[in-house]
Write a structure and sequence with these properties.
This protein is an alpha+beta fold and 243 residues long. The chain contains three helices and eleven strands; from the N terminus they run αααβββββββββββ. Among the domains are: 98 residues; 68 residues, SH3 Domains (SH3 type barrels), CATH 2.30.30.40. The strands form four sheets. The protein has a four-stranded antiparallel beta sheet, with helices on one face. A three-stranded antiparallel beta sheet has the order 9-10-11, with no helix packed on it. The protein has a two-stranded antiparallel sheet with strand order 5-8.
Amino acid sequence: MLPSSAVIGRPASPRIRRSRASNVRRIALPRIARPRLQIPRLRLPRVPRTIWIVALVVSVLLIAPLAYVLSSRPAAARHSSARVATTSTASAAAGSAQAAAIRGVESATGLRYAGSCPANAACLSLLSQMVGQDAAAVLFSTASSGGRQCAGYVYRSGGGWHFLDAVCGLAGQLSPLVGHEATVHVSGSCANLRDRASLNAGVVACLADGAQVHIDGGPTYADGRIWWREKRGWIAHDFLKAP
């Protein structure tokens, strides 16, 4: 027989005890320290003061001459423009008839040669040249207000060009030059006109002092002389140059 307190058909449910919150222990996790990145500081080596002073003095010694050269270059170029042109042109034509004539005419006139003469300045500039057989006549302008010109006569011997002489005068009046009139100058009885440009050539005429001839050929160098041709023969340069 069942007890009276029992209920038929309803089972008894077990009781579950809840633990109090105060009884629950909290677990404290350890704190992880964050690593700090330390960047090393670069320290420049200390330079002694003496080295800085020496470096400063050396810099001044190097910069000062350079500044002086750069500042003085334009002035030097202005004062020596003609001389620079002379040197460059003469060296470019070294060993030529023109170079020999430049040196000779410069020495004879005291003027300097320049490829382009400055305005209102006396100097030599090239006009033209007549090159014959081992001889040449180089014509220069003096760039002066009078319009004067100079002719330099050169000859080739021993593998090089040599200066003979020069004449200066008004344009169109220089002689001897091919295509121009020339006057015979002789201190003796007459100047021999030969059939060839040689002292051994036959004499075709004897020209008196003051005779006029028209030069149509030359110059030619032979037997130690420069020769010019007129329609009848050849005459030595010495007889056509004014004393």
